[in-house]
Design goal:
Number of helices: 21
Oligomer: single chain
Strand order of the largest sheet: 2-1-3-4-5
Largest sheet: 5 strands, parallel
Distance between the termini: 88 Å
Shape: elongated
Number of strands: 20
CATH superfamily of the largest domain: Response regulator
Length: 601
Amino acid sequence: MKKILIIDDQKDNLTTIEALLKIKLPGCKILTALSGKEGIDIANEEKPDTILLDIIMPGMDGYTVCKKLKENDLTKHIPVVMITAIKTDPESRIKGLDMGADAFLSKPIDQGELSAQVNVMLRIKKAEDELQAEKFQLDKKVKKKTKELRENNEKLNLEITKRKQVEEVLHNRERTYETLLNNLPGFTYRCKNDKNWTMDYISAGCENVTAYTYDDFLNNKNIAFNDIIDADYQEKVWAKWQKALKDKTSFEYEYPIFTKDKKLRWVWERGCGIFSDDGELLYLEGFITDITERKLTEEKLQNSEERFKKLSNLTFEGILIHNNGVAIDVNESLTRLFGYTEKEMIGKNLIKLLVPQEYHAKIKENIVKKIANPYEVLGRKKDGTLFPIEIEAKDIKSKDGEIRVTAIRDITERKLAEKSLRKSEEQQRTILQTAMDGFWLLDMKGNLVEANMAYSLISGYNMEELLTMKISDFEASETEVEIGSRIKKILKKGEDRFETQHRCKDGNIIDVEISVKYQSFDGGRFVCFLHDITNRKKAEKELLKYRENLEELVKERTKELEEKNQELERFNELFVGREFRIKELKNKVKELEEKLKLNLR
């Protein structure tokens, strides 16, 4: 329903204009105010679609009211029609336009002109509302897209970081495998995906590993490759290959075989399925190498592989293996991080080389106490640049005794992000503290965790007192049970908006409108914004009283009209009866005359 606000200090004028508007615009809600201040308050609360404003008023005149309305973000888009008593006064109109007026009406008000002007203003307001709604939706979409882009960027950065870590592990593995392949005999193959592993191609190196020639294996001429696999492993090899093909991943497995001269040897196989563009499996390709010697020397390599696994499994940028600060091994990320070469680091005391002196004691203490938890210090690059780093270390045992594996991470960006976050939180806190409406942050028990200065001023309690209170200390219209029911409703919906009453420190009861939203972080929180609507409620009561008085007046006038109507009906009955009797007398007279004439004849 459209709302029209009339501001005039003359009650008769208000009544006249309201009556005209109700005739011409029956679908509109009419609001009235007898002063500029009251009109501004109603405009702030009701957000009318058009304001009719009398210029000449005591105290705050129409120009001042118009200026204040146009300066307020809540009401500046509402069209204002100024009512002037001087139709030919251009200076009044110019001044009104300077104050922000949108149109003028002159007294006495013409009913048609009033209707036309108001309709134009309503169309202007509708267009402005649509523009604001479109702008709001656009801003909402921009914020949503910005948030999505930010989240996607964070996910992408995380994915890139994880991918780099995985790539580093894979690179180290590939380098290890390449070294093994360059020093161990082996052979390549292409075969069918059947239980015999029928060979379409097999390199000559197979003879060094199996003692069978490649001709023996081709198309299972003399022996199937599956026949030389240890019987206990044949089904395992088949199952692992089928899973790799299903998942479209590479196959990798170690298993024993029996050579032509019945010797047991261990082989390592790595291969993959070759698929057509249509996804059809064509054949298997791979490489098999003899790892028997490696199996025999596995115990000797165990310490080395453990060190490799520890290094690979740590997900930090820089990796350092040291003994009491002296570098035994470093990875490439650490050299890039500090700008030194591997040669410049190995054998050096990296505590002195990479960290300023004021942190030496702390690092040495953590080494002695075998502290494993991460901690932060400043790092120093080769060029002298200082930057924040995070250190996490763990002692492990090796064949040479106990060594310390240390991961070092550049946390410059994290520190900047933390600083930015703190700044953002401070800005948000400042906004809440300077807001016109009250603000609460409640825990799940209804205790105040945080409040702003606006609510302190509304309630009369200081900030220290507020933070020791709970909902029931303020609530003046709901019981503890009702409060509990409302909390359950908010938890179910996630949010709510409602009106209630609060008791101030001085005992006064105020009306408040509360908007609350549930947030699940920190064990659950209720974010509440509280708006003092006492004046609005008072205005609503006064308006209701005015309407009741008006209805009573209408009833009295209706009763008077009914009484007058009854008198008219009685008079009409008397008049009709008299006329009927006169007509009867005339008829009697006529009859007598006729008889007299007959007698005379």
